Amino acid sequence: FGVVFLTLLYSCSKPLDADKIEVQELLLDTDSGAPLALVVPVGSSEFPGADIEDMLGMYSVYSKKVRAEDFAIEVEFITLSGVDKKEIVQEKLEEIKTDSDAFRLIKRFEDGFLFETKEINGDLNYGFIKLKVFKNKYASIFPEPKPDGNTSLEEANYMLDILNRNL
């Protein structure tokens, strides 16, 4: 019975295809004077993230969340002048490698990367980091942590493909 149930479950779920999703531009952080324009599925909504935290006057950190069906990202803003995109991509890559016992880089982009980590329970979790750099801040975009488990490779690719689309 279990095999039949699992077969039905997987055969009924449609694969995620970013090319078939209607998208729109969503502006985040409009009050800052340097808003971030993201390509997201039509109907996506912005949700509050973490409030502004002042890091000893050196920089500040705050976040926003964007959600739609099969799409949930978090955007972390860091106010910092004179940032270099390549340096930040490398710094984020090293940060995740340090935090994870088992890390594998799947694909690297000019503005980020797609990766796999192995969780303590042995499950694989897939994520990405996409960066947008402005004059006095940068934004790290990544999948919002899921309450029910890990992000699959299909979900991570789907969200990243949408974010990388041009309007």
Plain-language structure description:
The chain has helices at residues 2-12, 85-99, 153-163; strands spanning 23-28, 36-41, 45-48, 53-55, 59-68, 71-79, 103-109, 112-118, 124-133, 137-143. The termini are far apart. The chain is built from 3 helices and 10 strands; from the N terminus they run αββββββαββββα. The chain has 167 residues and is α+β, with helices and mostly antiparallel strands. The longest helix is centred in the middle third of the chain and has 15 residues, at 85-99. Helices cover 22% and strands 41% of the residues. The strands form 2 sheets. Strands 3, 4, 5, 6, 7, 8, 9 and 10 form an 8-stranded antiparallel sheet that branches.
Considering the chains and any ligands shown, give keywords for the structure.
eight-stranded antiparallel sheet; disordered N terminus; 10 strands; single chain; two-stranded antiparallel sheet; 167 residues
Q: Span from first to last CA?
A: 47 Å
Give the helices and strands as they follow along the chain: HEEEEEEHEEEEH
The unreliable regions are: 1-11
Please state the oligomeric state of the protein chains shown. Answer: single chain
* Structural class estimated from helices and strands: alpha+beta
How much of the residues is beta strand, in percent?
35-45%
Query: Radius of gyration, rounded?
Result: 17 Å
Using the alpha-carbon principal axes, give the shape: globular
* Secondary structure tally, helices: 3
Which range best describes the helical content: under 10%, 10-25%, 25-40%, 40-55%, 55-70% or over 70%?
10-25%
Task: Describe the largest sheet.
Answer: 8 strands, antiparallel
- What value does the average pLDDT take? 87
Strand element count: 10
